[in-house]
Amino acid sequence: MLSCGICCSSNPDTGERGMAIDVKRFLAQKLLETVGEDAGDPYGLIERPPKEEFGDYAIPCFGFAKKFKKDPKLIASDLASQITPGGLLAKAESLGPYLNLYIDRKVFTKEAILALRRTGFEEIRADGEGKTVVIDYSSPNIAKPFGIGHLRSTVIGGSLKRIFSFCGFKTVGINHIGDWGTQFGKLISAYRRWGDERALEHDPIRYLYDLYVRFHAEAEKTPQFEQEGREWFNRLEKGDEEARELWRRFRSLSIEEFKRIYERLDVSFDYYTGESFYEDLLDETVKAVKASGITQMSEGALVVPLPDMPPALIRKQDGSTLYLTRDIAAVLYRKKEYDFDVALYVVGSPQALHFKQLFTVLARMGKGWAERCHHVPFGQIRFADEAMSTRKGNIVFLEEVLDRAASLARGIIEEKNPGVRNKVETAEAIGVGAVIFNDLKNSRIKDIAFDWDEMLNFNGETGVYLQYTHARIKSLLLKLEKRYKIPGIEAVSDISFGEEGYEVARLLNEFEAQVRRARSEFEPSVIARYLLEVAKAFNGFYNAHRVITGDRDESLSRGLVADCCRKVLSQGLELLCIRAIEEM
RNA sequence: GUGCCCAUAGCUCAGUGGACAGAGCAUUGGAUUGCGGAUCCAAGGGUCGGAGGUUCAAAUCCUCUUGGGCACGCCA
C-alpha cells in the first residue's frame, strides 16, 4: 500500500480526524517544500478547477504575485518546473497565472476506496465527544392540525439530530408542543357545546381541527363564544377539574396521533415537554429576569429594553406572561437539566426577531452561553392561490400528502417491479422518502411553493433516485457474491477503475467533510445534494463499466467501488431520515 | 415607517472572492439482443433583478435601488 503519510491522519488545520485522504494538505505540503515557508500555507488557496483540462487541483498565483512583486504567470510556470512529482502528485503544469496540479488518479482511487472500505466512520465521532446539543423542532400546536407546514421543522430538526449524533454529540430532541393557551379554552368550550365522543376517538387531530374551525366560524356570528372560550381557559389555569380533564384528553390523544406521523417520518424525540410544562416555572423566571436588573415598567407591562430592536415583553399589563417568558423559562430549564453546549431552535424564519430578542435577553442576564443558542430558520411553504389559513380550514394535512405519495409509489411498483417483496413497506419508504427529500434538498431559508407534482415527483433529483441507486447496487452486489461464491466484497487488485471510478472515489472521499459542513451550517441540504452527486457519479461509473465480468479481480475491485457507494448512500440517507431500501 | 430574508436558464434550484456560471424538470435527439430503463449520453436554452463601488479578480463583499416575502411591547 502506498504510504503517503496523509491517509487516516488528523487534519492539522481543524484538528478533525477522519478516514478521508486530505489531498489539499498533501499538495500544500509539497508546495511548502518547494517554495519554503515565506509565501505562507497555500492550503486555503488550493481549489478544484472548473474544467477537467485544468488538472485535478489548482492554485491561482495572484496572491504570490503581490508578495514577490512578480508576474503571476511567471510564478506559476516557475512553480510548475520546480515542484517534483511524487506520491499523489503526478505532474504540475502552469496555464497562465494558474498552477495546475494533476494527481495520480489510480493511486488516489485505490487508497480512497480502501480507506472507506475499512472505516466504520468512527473517527468523526471524536468531533462531538463529551458535548451535548439540544434541538427544539417540530413543536406543533395541539389545538391546530398537523399540516404540511409542520413538515419542515420536523424533518430539518430530525435530520440535524441524526447529523449531530453521527458526529458523536449527545443529542436531546425536544418537541416543544403548543399545549397551553387561550385556544384550549376555545376548544373546551366548543367540545362542551358540540362535542362527539366517538368522533374524537376516531380521528382526534382532524376532529379537534373541525371543532376549532367551527368555533371561529360561529364566533363570528355569536361574539359571546369568544368570551366563553376565555373563561374556560381561565378555569383551566385555575385547575378546574372538568377543564383539566378535557385538556389532558385532547393533549394525550393528539400526541398519540403525532407519534404515528413521526414514526412514518422516522423522526423521534427524547422529550415532549410543551408549553404547559413550564407554567410552574414562570414566576421564578420573571423573578430571575427582574433580579438581573435589566427590566423596566412600561405602560403597566414589564419589559426589557434592547439595543436596536423592540423591547422584550416579559409580563403583560394584566400580570400574565407571554411566549417569550416561556421560552426564557424553557432555555433556563434546559441549560440546568442538560447542560448543553449548543441549543438549536428549528423554527420558521418569521420568528427571527423573537429569537434575537430571546438570546439578547439571555446575554444581558449574564448568560455567556447565549451565543451558543441558535435559531435555525427556514422558509415557509406557500400556496400558489391562497395563503393557508388554519381558521378558515384550507389546509393540506401532512398525512394526506404521505398517503398520496405512498399510494402513487405503490402504483409504480405494480407497474415496474410487481415481484418486490413487502410492497406496502416499500411503497411507504419510497413515497415518504420522496416527500422528505423534496423538503431537505434545498437551502432551508428558501420559501417552498406547495406543488403536488413537485412533491410527488419520482424522477430526477429526488429521494427515489437515491433509493433506486442504492437498491440497484445492493442487487448487483448480491449477484456478484453469488457469481464468485464469496460472503462479501473484500479483495481488490491493482487494476484501474477508469475515469468514472476516480470521480466516484473523489466524491466518496468527501463524505465526512460534507457531513461536517452540514453540521456547522445546520443545513441538511448539503448532504442531500452531495448524495445526488454520489448517485450520479456511480450511475455514470456503472454505465461505463461492467462490474461482473469473467475476470474475478476486476469484478471484485469494481464491486468494491459499488459497495463503497452503497455504504455512503445508506449512511447519508439515514442522516436525512430516509430509508435506504434494498429492493424496489 | 423601521428591521430581516429572498431574486441565477421557460420552471425548481446549486454555486464557501478565482479560469468560459452549473444541475434537475420541461423540450428535442440518442443508448440495452449480458450486472434493474425509476437508468445513462447529448443538444438547445443566461444582461446572475438594476446602478455604482472595493479588488489583480465579484453571482459571491460594500452602498444605493427595484420587485417579492416576513416581522415589528400585551398572540404563539
What would you say this structure looks like, in words?
The chain is of the alpha/beta class and about 575 residues long. Among the domains are: about 25-105, Gyrase A, domain 2 (2-Layer Sandwich), CATH 3.30.1360; about 130-380, HUPs (Rossmann fold). Helices cover about 50% and strands about 10% of the residues. The protein contains 21 helices and twelve strands. It has helices at about 25-35, 60-70, 70-80, 105-120, 150-165, 180-195, 195-200, 205-220, 225-235, 240-265, 280-290, 325-340, 350-365, 400-415, 425-440, 450-455, 465-485, 500-510, 510-520, 525-545, 550-575, and strands at about 55-60, 90-95, 100-105, 130-135, 170-175, 295-300, 300-305, 310-315, 340-345, 375, 380, 450. The protein has a four-stranded parallel beta sheet, sandwiched between helices. Strands 1-3-2 form a three-stranded antiparallel beta sheet, covered by helices on one side. Helix 18 runs antiparallel to helix 20. The protein is globular and about 85 Å long. The two termini are about 40 Å apart. About 40% of the residues are buried. Residues about 1-10 and about 385-390 have low confidence and may be disordered. The chain binds one RNA strand of 76 nucleotides through helix 2, strand 8, helix 12, helix 13 and strand 12.
